[in-house]
Design goal:
Blueprint lengths: L1 E4 L5 E3 L14 E8 L6 E7 L24 E5 L9 H6 L7 H5 L5 E2 L8 E2 L7 E5 L2 E3 L21 E7 L13 E7 L7 E7 L2 E9 L3 E11 L1 H6 L5 E18 L3 E18 L8 E21 L2 E18 L2 E21 L2 E18 L4 E21 L2 E12 L4 E13 L4 E12 L14 E14 L2 E18 L5 E18 L7 E15 L15 E11 L4 E10 L3 E2 L10 E2 L3 E10 L2
Parallel strand pairs: 8-11
Antiparallel strand pairs: 1-2, 1-3, 3-4, 5-10, 6-7, 8-9, 10-11, 12-13, 13-14, 14-15, 15-16, 16-17, 17-18, 18-19, 19-20, 20-21, 21-22, 22-23, 23-24, 24-25, 25-26, 26-27, 27-28, 28-29, 29-30, 30-33, 31-32
Subcellular location: Cell outer membrane
InterPro entries: Beta-barrel_TonB, Beta-barrel_TonB_sf, CarboxyPept-like_regulatory, TonB-dep_rcpt-like
Keywords: Cell outer membrane, Membrane, Receptor, Signal, TonB box, Transmembrane, Transmembrane beta strand, Transport
């Protein structure tokens, strides 16, 4: 138990029996704060000097009996009981190849769309998932790639200490995502100074960690070229220029007396050329791509008081892409700016309040060089939000949030309520439920027309969570309803009356070595039933990117003698629908079942 004289550095900790004493030069009426794990924090007014010893009775509130809001949220990195994966898991999961996005696709609620590579969550398009770094929006989180070739996440997992993955039910602090979010938090300070060099068959890399008393710097450079792999492996498409790229990242931190400043910058240049098959053309399609991407993120967290914390930050992003396809040139410029202010106030052990405001500006310009046809879309969006977490009874918790946004692109306000209720059954079992409304601007869906408003989804979630020692079980059922989706007809007209739904069950079971020594494994299964009436669909039907059944089996075996880890991953997805042009029935075709096996051997020093 910590005992502090408010407004000073005077204080101490209690002994095993709860006794404490300390000296101070303060006089008069002062506030004495007591705070410790398992007890409600308390502030007591005392008169200094004390005329006699005092006895204080504290209310016990054990963490074992505190409800946990698990509906829709999975912590992929962290130290809480919500953690589904450790930080090392992200890079040691076979088949992920060190890609955060690929590692997330072994968790429930995702659809493994192997030809795309982005995060598809619970029947939603890839554009319906937003990604954030240090609470700020990332506008181009995926690498640019060729058709039918999966994209990768741009950012190194080693830079992040926290990864919060939401398949629905995310907080009011985040918006503009109909399906879910992936929120990344960069490391504060590196634990040691180091220089790392990497030599691979596909490229080179170098990294530097350097710490001073109040400053720290992490930098990395990388070059990759897949030409050697293309010489050894048979690929479906013929590459005229193997994927090649240069990238660099840097994180600078400065520790102030009561705050921490972080600046993160990432830059990347990539290019490729490929001849690929297209059902609409008799000959192979000649495709060439060049992309330059820049992302800069700045944030500052200030501690006003032990129970009051403020956040301010902004991010800037710009991406330029040049595509040459069948002798036609296409140029795309994509820029974004996000600024956010937030205040977190812990009123007491039972009440927490979060208040914030946000601005986001975006611009997308597409140009067809040959015809000089230009599509130029811009948006300015303002948002305010508030959230109150209330542990109103010993095992109960209620989180109430509201977010409101205005977009000058859709010329409309929205109001997004979100409510989560949690109950701790006992030490190991927890249940929670969630209802929320989510909005998203259709700027990525539009070409040359103006929208009528935001796209919308409503989500209902019910979650069961169990954790005991080295076992974790998570089950969730959900219902998601879509409205105001973009539709385009064969006549070229645009309407915003699309609808849809997604419902299903997610299951996750993890064991960290209690069954077999040095063996970790997890099982992830998702069932989904979904249909949509949107885009050019003539009727409500299941989209081509959704498989009804998705299964992931991940296993890892630690070999202590060799300081090595052997990992294996198996992923399965049932057949997905597609439209056969020779059939009169829309989306009547069904692909074969998808299965993939990966293995990995890692050596650690």
């Amino acid at each position: 138990m910590n005992v502090t004289l408010v407004g000073t550095y005077d204080g101490t900790t209690t002994d095993a029996e709860g006794n404490f004493s300390f000296e101070t030069e303060e006089l008069g009426e002062r506030e004495l704060e007591l705070e410790g794990e398992g007890f409600a924090s308390q502030i007591l007014v005392i008169e200094i000097p004390l005329k006699a010893s005092i006895e204080i009775e504290l209310e016990e509130v054990t963490q074992l009996e505190t409800a946990v809001f698990t509906a829709g949220t999975m912590r992929a990195v962290g130290n809480t009981n919500e953690t589904m994966m450790s930080s090392l898991d992200v890079v040691t999961t076979a088949g992920s190849d060190g890609d955060i996005i690929a590692a997330m696709q072994t968790l429930p609620g995702t659809n493994n769309v192997s030809e795309d590579g982005r995060l598809f969550i619970r029947g939603g398009e890839g554009e319906e998932t937003s990604i954030f770094i240090d609470r700020l929006r990332v506008f181009q989180p995926y690498s640019q790639t060729a058709p039918n070739t999966p994209a990768r996440g741009r950012y190194s997992p080693f830079l992040f200490k926290g990864i919060n993955f939401s398949t629905g039910g995310y907080e009011a602090a985040y918006g503009q995502a109909l399906s879910g979010i992936l929120s990344l938090e960069t490391q504060d300070f590196p634990t040691e100074n180091s220089v790392d060099l990497g030599i691979m068959t596909l490229g080179l890399s170098a990294a530097l960690n350097k710490s001073w008393e109040k400053d720290a710097l992490t930098t990395s450079l990388a070059y990759y070229n897949l030409w050697p792999a293309m010489q050894m492996l048979k690929t479906r498409d013929e590459f005229t220029h193997a994927p090649e790229g240069y990238s660099g990242e840097a994180v600078y931190r400065h520790q102030f007396k009561n705050g921490l400043y972080k600046s993160y910058m990432a830059a990347e240049y990539s290019k490729l050329g490929v001849l690929y098959e297209d059902i609409n053309y008799e000959n192979l399609v000649d495709f060439k791509l060049k992309n330059t991407n820049l992302y800069w993120n700045n944030s500052y967290v200030h501690t006003f008081h032990r129970n009051l914390e403020g956040f301010i930050g902004f991010s800037v992003a710009k991406s330029d892409t040049e595509v040459e396809q069948m002798q036609n040139d296409y140029l795309k410029e994509d820029w974004g700016f996000n600024a956010k202010m937030e205040l977190d106030w812990k009123l007491n052990a039972r009440n927490l309040v979060k208040l914030g405001s946000e601005y986001m500006g975006r611009g997308i310009e597409n140009e067809e060089v040959e015809t000089n046809l230009v599509s130029d879309l811009d948006e300015n969006l303002w948002a305010v939000y508030a959230e109150h977490t209330w542990y109103f009874a010993r095992k109960w918790g209620l989180k109430m949030g509201i977010r409101s946004e205005y977009s000058d692109y859709v010329k409309q306000w929205n109001v997004s309520p979100r409510v989560s209720l949690a109950y701790k059954i006992n030490r190991y079992h927890n249940i929670s439920a969630f209802y929320g409304e989510f909005f998203q601007s259709p700027i990525d869906e539009m070409g040359y027309d103006q929208p009528n408003g935001f796209m919308k989804s409503r989500q209902y979630l019910l979650n069961y969570f169990y954790q005991k020692e080295k076992q974790t079980v998570r089950m969730e059922v959900y219902q998601k309803d879509y409205s105001d989706l973009i539709r385009n007809t064969t006549e070229g007209k645009i309407f915003q009356n699309g609808i849809g739904y997604a419902r299903g069950l997610d299951f996750f079971w993890r064991n960290n070595g209690s069954h077999f020594k040095n063996v970790q494994y997890w099982v992830s299964y998702s069932y989904i039933d979904t249909k949509r009436l949107y885009q050019d669909f003539p009727e409500e039907t299941q989209p081509s990117f959704v498989a009804n059944h998705n299964l992931s089996l991940v296993g890892k075996y630690w070999i202590q003698k060799w300081r090595s880890q052997l990992g294996m991953t198996y992923q399965f997805a049932s057949g997905r629908p597609y439209h056969n042009p020779n059939s009169n029935e829309f989306m009547s075709g069904k692909t074969k079942e998808f299965s993939e096996r990966s293995s990995q051997l890692g050596v650690f020093d």
